[in-house]
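forwarding from the other thread:

> can someone predict this with glyceraldehyde-3-phosphate?

sure thing
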Amino acid sequence: LVDGELKKWTGETSDVYSTISSTADYAPTFLGTIPFMNEVQAIEAIDAADKAYANGQGIWPTMKVADRIKCMEDFVIQMKATRSEVVKLLMWEIGKSLSDSEKEFDRTVEYIYDTIASYKELNSRGAKFSKVQGINAMIRRSSLGVVLCLGPYNYPLNETFTLLIPALIMGNPVIFKPAKHGVLLLSPLLTAFQSSFPKGVINILYGRGREVASPIMKSGRVSVLALIGNSKSAIALQDLHPNKNKLRLILGLEAKNPAIILADANLDLALSECIAGSLSFNGQRCTALKILYVHEDVAEEFNKRFAQKVDELSFGNPWEKGVFLTPLPEKEKPAYIQELIEDATNKGAKIINKKGGETTDNFIFPAVLYPINKQMRLYEEEQFGPVVPIMTFKNIQEPLDDMAASDYGQQVSLFGKDIKTIAPLIDTLVNLVCRVNLNSSCQRGPDVFPFTGRKNSAVGTLSIHDALRAFSIRTFVASKDN
Ligand code: G3H
């Protein structure tokens, strides 16, 4: 979708096969074909977005607030009609279970409505004058310019839209390039975008990053790089911008969220939260628990029960009832997970659950590894998949020191009962990460909460409320009483 036109594509294409198969020989399932666009379309897209912005004088930043809201409302109404088609593609393209796919779709729709409501509120608050030293000021939030938006494969709809929707509603034209997986599921939405927004306001390109995103960045005409993915791509893209000091970054990056299980923790609760926290959607969540620290007094019992519970998890195709584990969308992922397991076992860890590491085609059964030490890759590498490393500790200072030394700082889960121990710990933990989850696993939502991280985990803060600020600049009108 470029400059309001759904392009007929005659260039390079790529066939999309699902890693899910209903046949006994695991033959990949053909899902469709996607275009691989290139520099020509990338430049057309930046030209179109630039025209819609026109240095702040274009149709989109100057449009009345009520009209911009109307465009967004039109879009969400049309989007709702695509639910069953998009949910089906979420299952086939990225292997997300039916209930999680439905949740992702509904959460995204709700996110759009909440963003519209928050935008209305922001405008009504800004419309009031405040008077200081004889000067009246009316504060508002204004647009920034063209936004290049890149979303991740694990939440191709929800996470992407937490960037795209606030960027648009604040008056910024957007060029959006989806991740490698989860592209076809956007197709049902293209006509909704096309008919709801003026030409050039939303441009959607498929293709390889270096052929599509790189020329856009090199053009120097992007004001905001909004990306949820890995820091390597973010840094590479940022470096291509000729005036990168002027570029605003809104980034959601890697995380290695730990769970700390204290000696007095309610183990039943800690076990169920750690299972869901580390393995829902096969561990492919930036908020997933990626390392567990268990106090040595309870380690034996915790590890034994955790391993058993993991072995009881159900595996199947995403649409099957009650299924928890599903095939992975990335062909190369099982081999990568096996590499991590091998590295840890070569250095002294053991797979403590019976089914850990069993692989069938693109499904790998989660492996629980214990004991992990600092020489192992799993100690600091973000696995983003079905493998759970466990360490023990004697003194709470041990996990705290590890967190302080880590390159990441998104969230932590803390399990324990004694408020006298927990309260001072919270004061320390909030300086190491941005969200402390008490007796519960890590998660991003509800989307009204700030979502960010320290160090290499994030730049900028997302939430319905914060994202509107992230994608705008504070401006005001001042007048004297005369
Ligand atoms: O991949 C990172 C997602 O933002 C995780 O979101 O905690 O709602 O699953 P979630």
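Residues 373 and 379 are 7 Å apart (CA to CA). thats all i got for now
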